[in-house]
Specification:
With 161 residues, the protein is an all-alpha fold. Helix content is 86%, strand content 0%. The chain has 4 helices and no strands. The N terminus is likely disordered. Belongs to the Mediator complex subunit 22 family. Its main location: nucleus. One of its GO terms (cellular component) is mediator complex. GO terms for molecular function: transcription coregulator activity.
């Protein structure tokens, strides 16, 4: 966590030294990737161990005595509590990581956000122009059909003097 804070502080001086800022971004992103990988691994490992601990093994020698069953039960119970706490901790760390990523994007990637917004606006304008062209084409086609129908009605069904 201290490395990440140092990387964030180092990234603040980007306007003075762009190579230092870029290196800081790379280190920060690597730290985020490591945290993500570690927390996901912790979630998976603890979940697998939790499920494994929940299985009942009846062929063991421990189950033959009442004390052995109680000792195993308590051991399994404590192990499951610890595993569940570790899962909650990993989820909490993932939540903190998400907040750190949001903060990083807000503080460091204004150019990226600006480009993404501009690209989305351009795509929206292109779609709007395309839809307007389709609308106009359909409007013209409908007007032609209505004109033909009116002409046909006048030629065949109008009262002639």
């Amino acid at each position: 966590f201290q490395k990440m804070q140092a990387a964030k502080v180092g990234g603040a001086g980007m306007s003075q030294q762009p190579s230092k800022g870029s290196a800081s971004k790379v280190l920060t992103i690597q730290e985020y990737k490591r945290r993500l990988r570690d927390n996901i691994r912790s979630l998976n490992d603890n979940f697998v161990h939790l499920i494994t601990a929940a299985k009942i093994k009846q062929e063991d020698e421990v189950h033959k005595s009442q004390n052995g069953r109680m000792a195993e039960h308590k051991t399994t119970q404590y192990e499951m509590k610890v595993r569940a706490a570790l899962i909650v901790r990993a989820c909490d760390e993932l939540s903190k990581l998400t907040n750190d990523l949001k903060e990083f994007l807000i503080l460091h990637d204004f150019n990226f956000l600006t480009e993404a917004i501009s690209k989305a606006e351009n795509e929206c304008e292109d779609k709007l122009k395309h839809q307007l062209r389709k609308h106009n084409d359909l409007r013209i086609d409908i007007a032609k059909i209505v004109f033909d129908v009116d002409k046909e009605l006048q030629e065949h069904f109008s009262l002639r003097p």
